[in-house]
Write a structure and sequence with these properties.
CATH topology of the largest domain: Glutaredoxin
CATH superfamily of the largest domain: Glutaredoxin
Number of strands: 8
Strand content: 5-15%
Largest sheet: 4 strands, mixed
Helix content: 25-40%
Distance between the termini: 101 Å
CATH class of the largest domain: Alpha Beta
Radius of gyration: 36 Å
Number of domains: 2
Structural class: alpha+beta
Strand order of the largest sheet: 6-5-7-8
CATH architecture of the largest domain: 3-Layer(aba) Sandwich
Length: 318
């Protein structure tokens, strides 16, 4: 009786070598491979002689292993195919070189990243683990989220009862931290004709912050696509180019209520929505929007500065 298909020519010595490799190199999954090969491994030359199946000489001077009748089936070949691929990686490109293996026998056993690692990132494993991944991933804080009122006092004005992520750190913060301050809220951009206003805004902040002024920046790509960078790139640009130290929050759309409800409220209260980058809103110490200023109004504009000074003289209502 002879082997048929891909397992023709397998010798007793060959099976012994496979078992030895599995034992020495601890190929991932070798236990179930050994179990799968057990019916073949127990076949010995003597037992086959006793059964009348004498070893069959081959051209190399060795003997071929006769296949017991229960294993002489194409289903055995199909079953052993996936096991062989665990070691050969026949059709997989080499992880280190990117070269595809032309033949299964050309691929050395466990010659690159472990089979366990490759299996762990396979599409089937990823798909199976997908329902579990969200259980351990931290829930992102939506822009303008008003939840988590631990740092929102009961008397915090409605306009300030929103949370945003800081541009530099990604930390979620409540605008209630600015309660009792005069706010200058600005939507900014790094590649705009008005970008130079960063310098004037920072000058205003440093001059009046001791008296209660806070400049609050919100980068936005809404107008002219002039803020295409990531939050990290924007933070580096503002800090390195203009030495910005006033509070800035992550990039968002100032024209979409879902992304930035603060600007939606400011637009509704003043009757004017931002028309371009560096639109400015003044908010008094009681958290009430006062007025919106067009982008062309520079931070050192005399009337604009006088309006800020008047608001700084006011005391917040008890």
């Amino acid at each position: 009786m002879k082997f048929t298909g891909p397992i023709a020519g397998v010798t007793l010595a060959g099976i012994g070598a496979v078992a030895l490799v599995l034992a020495l190199f601890e190929v991932p999954g070798h236990d179930f491979i050994a179990q799968a090969l057990a019916p073949i491994a127990v076949v010995s030359e003597s037992s086959n002689d006793a059964a009348g199946d004498a070893p069959i000489p081959n051209d190399g001077g060795g003997n071929l292993l006769p296949v017991p009748a229960p294993l002489d089936d194409d289903r055995v070949v199909a079953a052993l195919g996936p096991l062989a691929r665990l070691s050969c990686h026949r059709d997989d490109p080499d992880v280190l070189t990117g070269d595809a293996h032309d033949d299964a026998l050309d691929a050395p056993l466990a010659s690159y990243a472990s089979s366990m690692q490759l299996t762990a990132v396979g599409p089937l494993v990823v798909a199976a683990a997908a329902p579990i991944a969200p259980l351990t991933a931290p829930a992102p804080v939506p822009r303008g989220d008003a939840s988590g009122a631990a740092d929102m006092p009961a008397d915090c004005p409605a306009l300030l009862r929103h949370r945003f992520n800081r541009l530099q750190t990604g930390e979620s913060q409540s605008l209630c931290q600015f309660q009792g301050k005069v706010l200058l809220v600005v939507n900014t951009a790094s590649y705009c004709g008005y970008t130079g206003q960063y310098e004037g805004l920072e000058a205003l902040y440093r001059k009046y912050k001791g008296r209660g002024l806070v400049v609050v920046g919100f980068p936005s790509n809404d107008f002219g696509g002039q803020e295409p960078g990531t939050n990290q790139e924007i933070a580096q640009f503002c800090r390195l180019t203009y030495g910005v130290q006033f509070p800035m929050f992550e990039k968002s759309s100032v024209t979409k209520v879902s992304e930035n409800p603060l600007f939606a409220t400011l637009a509704a209260a003043t009757g004017v929505a931002p028309q371009w980058n560096f639109y400015k809103y003044l908010v008094d110490r009681n958290g009430q929007p006062v007025k919106g200023y067009a982008s062309r109004t520079t931070p050192d504009d005399r009337e604009f500065v006088q309006a800020i000074e008047r608001l700084l003289l006011e005391r917040p209502q008890s």
